[in-house]
Amino acid sequence: MKELFHSVGLISEKCIGCTKCLMNCPVEAIRVKNGKAVIYNEKCIDCGECIKVCPYGAHVSIKDSLEDIKKFNIKVAIPSVTLYSQLGQDVSPQMINDALLKIGFDEVFDITYACDIASEVLKKDIEKVDKPAISTLCPVVIRLIETQYPTLISHMVKMITPIEISALMIREKYEKLGYHNDEVGLFFLSPCPSWATKVNSISRNDNIRIDGVISIDEVYPKLLKNINKNIDIENKPSISSTGLMWAYSEGQSRAIGIDDYIAVDGIKNVIKVLNDVENERLSNVKFIEAYACPSGCVGGLLLVENPFNAERITKKLIDKIDFSYQIDDHVVLESKFIGNNRKREVSQKLAEDFESAVKKIKMMNNIINMLPGTDCGLCGSPSCKAFAEDVVKGLANLEDCKFINGGLKNEG
Amino acid sequence: MDELLNVKYDVASGDFIRGGEASSNIKKLLQQLGVRNDIIKRICVACYEAEMNIVIHSVGGYIEAKVFSDRIEITAFDNGPGIENIDLALQEGYSTASNLAREMGFGGGMGLPNIKRSCDEFYIDSKVGEYTKIKIIVYLK
Q1: What residues make up the domain containing A4?
Q2: Which of A147, A153, A354 to mutate to test the interface with B (most CBs of B within 10 A)?
Q3: Are residues A249 and A371 in the same domain?
């Protein structure tokens, strides 16, 4: 099997083998082995919770550096819409784009254009999938569904994300201008680590290749130094209000003007809502936009401004803008993405054949009965149940349980 | 054919917060067995509805799942009050749920019809003042 790329990594030297990440991983993808955390790639959904909780800075997000743009003749920035909420309410998108040019980019693509196109595609896609339709903007939510809720794959819209749309449009433009594809470097300025994983997978297609994901917290200090508040504000903003809505939770639904939607943010809340979808409790809901981060993309791990203020600033900006792109024909564009949205189902099965799986479950149940049920984490697994599963999978030894090993288990 | 596995979960009356846990445990079990997703989905829906029926309507009971090589059997048993008119209860939209349950989005009168729709075999047996027992079978092949 091809190894999965992940944007959450571990600096082994910094890890002291505490159980913080182990206990806080929402999908039980972390174990502690020989005093160091280990991330199980097939389970990891790139949510970044471990980065947030690690007291030692051992969990890090893997991303590219601003230095990497120098490798290209033409350097194009695709800033996430969240960028425009990061430098306070008095710094306009034009000032930010101007500063991006000063720090080395040749072009700043207006991603709100791609958002407006994505809105049109989304409107149609909602009609094509099982209800309630689930947005596929947040890469973490996609991975969560693929790994934990495969029965809900038929609810996921086939939508192309604004990042992919941007990449296609930029690549087409420079091709027409006579540039070779490899001369042009596209860089996504990202609010969260999960995009590095997503971009890695979409970039296998050369026509939407993105050459790097740079975190917004890295460009932030450089932008601060280069903001010029005296640039010509009279220049009407060519940025779309509906496109900006994609920055926060509920924004997609507002942008497409749908009713009977649910906007859910925070990975644990998303899990609750997906459980309800699975039990068919939400049959009156048409559309669910779900984000791993609190408040949506403005709550991203790689942002500087606090999510709630960032949401306020975004909304304030939206109120000031009286402009949206008119999208007439997106069908042509859509056809270029066919086959790009392959869903990767991940199986939870314990064995290839049914009989062996039954045997393993019996073994697992026997082991669970031997364990204290305190979920202490000392064995390196996040819970007694997870430990029992690890043992039958051959990923842990029964002796790793301190209670069985030291005879500490309370017999009674 | 022989029963391969058997799990049983108590379900408490009126516990809307924990109601659904039995179904999610059974879902996990089926995933670990490698049961096909469309089949898991049908079992999940039936099992969840049956579990919530115990929470909403009964004084408490249990959900039991039996695994065979060719089928899954789910039994939902509660200790009363029983169903007076089973034919009526099986009609879509018929409900005896409390106002509170309805406000929470339950009690739409679709519980039993949904269960029936989701499974291959459906059995219901009830005695007023004593019990209700629902057995559903979903084929694996």
Answers
A1: 1-62
A2: A354
A3: no
Mutation pick from A278, A352, A363 vs chain B, by most beta carbons of B within 10 Å, is A278
Query: Tokens at residue A320, please?
Result: 């000031």
Candidates B16, B4, B8, B43; CA nearest to B98 is B16
Burial A333-368 (b: 16+ CB within 10 A, else e): bbebbeebbeeeeeebbbbeebeebbbbbeebeebe
Domains of chain B by start residue, with CATH: 3-139 (3.30.565.10)
pLDDT by residue, tens only, chain B of 141 residues: 688 999 999 999 988 888 889 999 999 999 999 999 899 999 999 999 999 999 988 999 999 999 999 999 999 999 989 888 888 888 777 777 777 676 666 666 667 888 988 899 999 999 999 999 999 999 998
Do A95 and A57 fall into the same domain?
no
Joined together, the tokens standing for residue B11 give 């379900």
Total number of domains constituting chain A:
3
Q: Which residues of B touch A262 (CB under 8 A)?
A: none
CB contact (8 A) between residue A358 and residue B24: no
CB within 8 Å: A357 and B34: yes
A45 and A94 assigned to the same domain = no
Residue A5 placed within a domain = yes
Q: Is residue A380 part of a domain?
A: yes
Contact (CB<8Å) B33/A358:
yes
